[in-house]
Amino acid sequence: MEGKSMELNEVVITRAIIDRYYEKLINNLETDVAIVGGGPSGLVAGYYLAKAGKKVVLYERKLSIGGGMWGGGMMFNEIVVQKDALHVLDEFGIRYVEYRENYYTSDSVEAISTLISKAVKAGLTIFNCISVEDVVMRPDRVTGLVLNWSPVEMAGLHIDPLAVGSKVVIDATGHATEVVAVVQKKVPGKLRTETGKIEGEKSMWADNAEQLTLKNTREVFPGLYVAGMSANATFGGPRMGPIFGGMLLSGEKVAKELLEKL
Ligand code: 48H
Asked: Separation of 62 CA from ligand 1 center, angstroms?
């Protein structure tokens, strides 16, 4: 005979969620690296940094993490990855099939769900439904992020944000380059681009774009790095369409560079 299990209590369920979330929040007020944007480049960066023992947090505006990878190309949920980036898929255990020489395909749902899962298990803390609306600034350096709930942003409510500190920030916000845009607008000084401003993303040229994504993954302002599509939009590289090797390699590169510095 099985014994009667303890009756579940709604207030205890609520208390458990509040206690655990509060712990997570308070433990991440100061971090080594804060990543803005939960697309492939941000997740790969977060994975490698967390795996190496860094305290790293990622903020994503949307309810679901993953950015633009879920939909493959035009909702055909397959992605293309070139040979140079296969070692990242191997590191995560994401399966791929050769299509032609140097063109490999992966199921986009397997790819992005595995990036998310492995990054979290490696120690990356993810907060979803939070939008980064500003940076914390000292005269010559970005030193943190200003956060608000995405629903507050969506409803246009006049509610003051909260702030967190981080040694380094990575803008992995994709096409929009949201953190760099705020720095350009509000922080005195120039970006480390040719004109000192955001150069803007150019039209599609996959081969060139994939190479430039890597080159453009770097520090754009003291304390602020760009990765993924944001790197090309900031430094004026073209878009590449649904080939994702550059995004994966960009995340790997920014993590490597920061591990040498931090
Ligand atoms: C919190 C924010 C904020 C903010 C934005 O777009 P992503 O998938 O980014 P990448 O660079 O890792 O990958 C780009 C890729 O998906 C892509 O679009 C490609 C390859 N396009 C080629 C082409 O030709 O079009 O993810 C960015 C994430 C999103 O989930 C946003 O919701 C999030 O960042 N985000 N999160 N605060 N202020 N801004």
From this structure: 11
Least confident range from 33-47, 62-76, 156-170, 175-189: namely 175-189
Ligand 1 atom closest to the Cα of residue 65 is: 30
Question: Closest Cα to atom 21, ligand 1: which residue?
Answer: 241
Identify the pLDDT of residue 1: 53
User: Over the chain, what is the mean pLDDT?
Assistant: 97
Of 186 and 170, the structure prediction assigns the larger pLDDT to: 170
Closest Cα to atom 38 of ligand 1: 132
Q: What is the 3-state secondary structure (H, E, C) of the chain?
A: CCCCCCCCCHHHHHHHHHHHHHHHHHCCCEEEEEEECCCHHHHHHHHHHHHCCCCEEEEECCCCCCHHHCCCECCECEEEECHHHHHHHHHHCCCCEEEECCEEEEEHHHHHHHHHHHHHHHCCEEEECEEEEEEEEECCEEEEEEEEEHHHHHHCCCCCCEEEEEEEEEECCHHHCHHHHHHHHHCCCCCCCCCCCCCCCECCCHHHHHHHHHHCCCEEECCEEECCHHHHHHHCCECCCCECHHHHHHHHHHHHHHHHHC
CB-facing half-sphere around the CA of 5: CA atoms within 13 A = 2
Residues with CB under 6 A from ligand 1: 36-42, 59-62, 67-69, 131-132, 172-174, 176, 178, 204, 228-230, 239-241, 247
